Amino acid sequence: MDSLIENGVDGPVVFEVLSGTYSEHIVIPYIQGVSPANTITFKAQTPGENNVILEYASSQSDTNYIVRLDSSHHIHLSGFTFIPKGIEYRNSIEIVGNSKHISLKNNFFKTPIENKGYQIYISSFPLSTDSLTNIEIEGNYLEGGIYGIHTIGFINQDSYFTIKNNNFKNHSILSINSRSLKIDI
Predict the structure, then answer these.
(1) Are the C-beta atoms of 152 and 123 separated by less than 8 Å?
(2) DSSP 3-state assignment of 7?
(3) Would you list the DSSP string of 42-67?
(4) What is the DSSP secondary structure assignment for residue 114, as one 8-state letter?
(5) Higher-confidence residue: 75 or 113?
């Protein structure tokens, strides 16, 4: 990841992750050179439940995620199983800052129902008129936690959010909690 951040990209990049369980705490910021043609894709080499497991045990509220997309652009994640392991703080993915063109497709999110975390947390705070656009969450399986998808923040009228063909199961409060964001479901 350090090399990607330092050097950027000059063409489309695909990372195929081998089957296994990985204890990870990943922050993906804006990467130089990304564009609609120069996307960055992270995908399981063998997609499917429990083939590529990403987990992390956080003990603090400010590091309570496995993957954080912070002002990331043109990032695609596909075919992973996310299992947050923290005692109290358990988010699988956070999408924050002015992230744009993010795609989460065909992933599995599993968290104990009693935990206080979210499977997918999307926030555009601090408020900005240039934040969070073109977010696609499609074909995922989300089980457990307080919310499957929790969104909060500001969205401009030209933004595009879509949440479709996902399977939600056993969330202690709601499958989708959207505050202040316009989303096509």
Answers:
(1) yes
(2) helix
(3) EEESS-STTTEEEEE-B-SGGG--SE
(4) T
(5) 75
**pTM to 2 decimal places:** 0.91
C-beta pairs of 46-51 under 8 Å, 24+ apart in sequence: 46/19, 46/79, 47/78, 47/79, 47/106, 48/79, 49/81, 49/108, 49/141, 50/81, 50/108, 51/19, 51/79, 51/81
- Report pLDDT digits (tens) over 96-105: 888 999 999 9
**Is the pLDDT higher at 63 or at 168?**
168
Distance from first CA to last CA of the chain, Å, rounded? 33
Ramachandran assignment for 119, one of left (phi > 0), alpha (psi -120 to 50 degrees), beta (any other):
alpha
DSSP symbol at 184:
B
Q: Indicate the pLDDT class of residue 177, thresholds 50, 70 and 90.
A: confident
